[in-house]
């Protein structure tokens, strides 16, 4: 009975309590909000403290090399593609441009019309010269008729003088008139020649209003527009053009390289060269030394070397950057098959008694890769296994760099 009474007391409602206890649903909402807040705070803490910070590194591309190029290079240098035959075409006279017939990148042949000037003045001068020539020819024809008549009259008087039918003085007067007409005829002939030469000069003046290509080539710049004034000499400040356009003979392209004075002794005329354009690092172009310019640049301590390209290709254009390797001997004909790759020597390190390089992947993480190195190529090394052309490696890897680390490239 006592136990039952105690149980009944526990079930009795206390009416004296100040407020009812919180409902279970309201308490659950507070618990859910607390859990969400803890999750958000944990995420922020991971972003700030737990996220991996990338390591700043410098990188370099992996470049393919040709068979034989790794062992025969005695000197590497940088230069530019230049054109030995290039001209900024201008008119011979000062005039207003009437029509321009060229555009950048257009191929022109020798003698092709590039532009025309307004020929009003030249045409007027030619018309005047033509009229003067016609007048001289008309005067010449009249004098020729007079001389013929004077010759006939002198012949008749000579016969009559022999027969003593006319006086000698009359005959002498006819001879004098004939000689005077002959002198006028010679003057008229010379005037006709002068008028003809003047017409030829006027024709040249008309032709000077036509600008033609001096040689075959490609237009690299268009400098004038219709309506502008062009002149072979600078006149009128910025209101006068001095050229119509620039033409480059693509067959005259070659390489100019500046070699340091201390290394110029390694370069000889007719020396084989392997050229690589900066725009096409996997394309090896055969070349040859043309000449060593016999003067040095005092400020830069370099000597200029001319190199001829043995391959003509539309991809080679003036002012392109190029790297050349001077070879001891020409590479063999079968040198088209790639033989390994070349990387900067600073990209090769020793880790765990292995020769490795760190390759940067697409996700900005590095992969430690074991490699097999070959010969030394000046500041580069040949790698025969472990790397492929086109990949990117880390140069001078930091000691803390490990496989899988995230990196960022420093400028």
UniProtKB/TrEMBL annotation:
Domain Multidrug resistance protein MdtA-like barrel-sandwich hybrid: residue ranges: 85-231
Pfam families xref list: Beta-barrel_RND_2, BSH_RND, YknX_C
Top-level taxon of origin: Bacteria
UniProt-listed InterPro entries: Beta-barrel_RND_2 (IPR058792), MdtA-like_BSH (IPR058625), RND_pump_MFP (IPR006143), YknX-like_C (IPR058637)
Key word Cytoplasm present: no
Residue stretches making up the YknX-like C-terminal permuted SH3-like domain: 341-408
Entry GO MF terms: efflux transmembrane transporter activity
Keywords of this entry: Coiled coil, Membrane, Transmembrane, Transmembrane helix
Domain CusB-like beta-barrel: from-to ranges: 255-327
Parts forming coiled coils: 133-191
CC per GO annotation: efflux pump complex
Membrane among keywords: yes
Transmembrane regions: 30-49
Similarity comment text for this entry: Belongs to the membrane fusion protein (MFP) (TC 8.A.1) family.
Name of this chain's protein: RND family efflux transporter MFP subunit
